[in-house]
């Protein structure tokens, strides 16, 4: 039996948002990781809410557009239980074509209204800029986002994949509650400059892909196929010699997980959770059984020595391949 999840707080002061200790990334229910499965997604979200996973993460680009609609259907009648996060900025056409990044004030307003309609809600709890638009001053983008707060359409603001200087400038315009970025045993570069700034400013961290896009579960043993985007060159860590080297690291995690009587994925999630009370990972899944496994990770207790051993077992420099084949959209 899985114990009910506790809560954590993202942000500080007037920008503080209390959420479940672990969230649920909903992207894969609609796109990228094999064929979409709407019914499985609806069932997974319902089970998540029953288990106390109330922090749900989506974005307008997922689908595109269909994931927000799915999440909206899933929370109908249960809106008061949910801390709902969505994102704007990665523009896509109805046919899925990627149209670039847009942080213009006009687009901020239009994207928010469209997300609210698809989600079937009046207010989004946490609204992120999905990627920083280098052609628009962050002050202009966040200023438009702040106007959404004033209008009651958004409660709190966030950034995704923003660098330290951008975070400072954004926070000076309006308090930022959370920064979402990739963070796991396999991706720790944010520890150098981003995480210190977040802690200085009292901003929470929301790690996506805390399981290394599934690598850290031990379930991936070869390059994914059948419409799974991880099989493309966009994800170098899943290709050829890089994958072979990374699977050696996964074996080390599996050995330590056996000592703790848990799965490697649970140990990897426990490591992320142990990084601080201001850290709320959002592992994604479209299957109830994986959701339940992830939630149980909150019960895996790690000592400081356990955390250090795990960090040493997967040295930062040992992970092979960039996290994206094209890192140009990542603000540094």
TrEMBL record:
It comes from the Bacteria. Keywords: Oxidoreductase. Gene3D superfamilies: NADP-dependent oxidoreductase domain. The keyword Plastid does not apply. Coiled coil: none annotated. Pfam families: Aldo_ket_red. This is Predicted oxidoreductase. It comes from Klenkia taihuensis.
């Amino acid at each position: 039996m899985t114990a009910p999840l506790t809560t954590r707080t993202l942000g500080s002061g007037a920008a503080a948002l209390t959420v479940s200790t672990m969230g649920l990334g909903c992207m894969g229910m609609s796109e990228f990781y094999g064929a979409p499965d709407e019914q499985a997604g609806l069932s997974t979200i319902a089970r998540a809410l029953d288990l106390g996973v109330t922090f749900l993460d989506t974005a307008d680009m997922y689908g595109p557009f269909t994931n927000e609609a799915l999440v909206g259907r899933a929370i109908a009648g249960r809106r008061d239980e949910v801390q709902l996060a969505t994102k704007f900025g990665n523009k896509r056409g109805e046919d899925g074509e990627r149209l670039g990044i847009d942080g213009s004030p006009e687009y901020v307003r239009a994207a928010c209204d469209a997300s609210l309609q698809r989600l079937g809600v009046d207010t989004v709890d946490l609204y992120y800029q999905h990627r920083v638009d280098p052609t628009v001053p962050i002050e202009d983008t966040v200023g438009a986002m702040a106007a959404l707060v004033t209008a009651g359409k958004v409660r709190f603001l966030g950034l995704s994949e923003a660098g330290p200087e951008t975070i400072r400038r954004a926070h000076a315009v309006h308090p930022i509650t959370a920064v979402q970025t990739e963070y796991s045993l396999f991706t720790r570069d944010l520890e150098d400059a981003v995480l210190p700034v977040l802690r200085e400013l009292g901003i929470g961290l929301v790690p996506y892909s805390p399981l290394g896009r599934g690598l850290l579960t031990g379930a991936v043993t070869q390059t994914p196929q059948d419409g799974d985007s991880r099989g493309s060159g966009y994800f170098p860590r899943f290709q050829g010699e890089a994958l072979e080297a990374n699977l050696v690291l996964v074996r080390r995690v599996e050995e330590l997980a056996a000592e703790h009587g848990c799965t490697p994925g649970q140990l990897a999630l426990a490591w992320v959770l142990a990084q601080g009370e201001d850290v709320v990972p959002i592992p994604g899944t479209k299957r109830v059984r994986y959701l339940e496994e992830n939630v149980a990770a909150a019960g895996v207790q790690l000592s400081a020595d356990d955390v250090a051993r795990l960090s040493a077992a997967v040295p930062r420099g040992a992970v092979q391949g960039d996290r994206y084949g094209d890192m140009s959209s990542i603000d540094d």
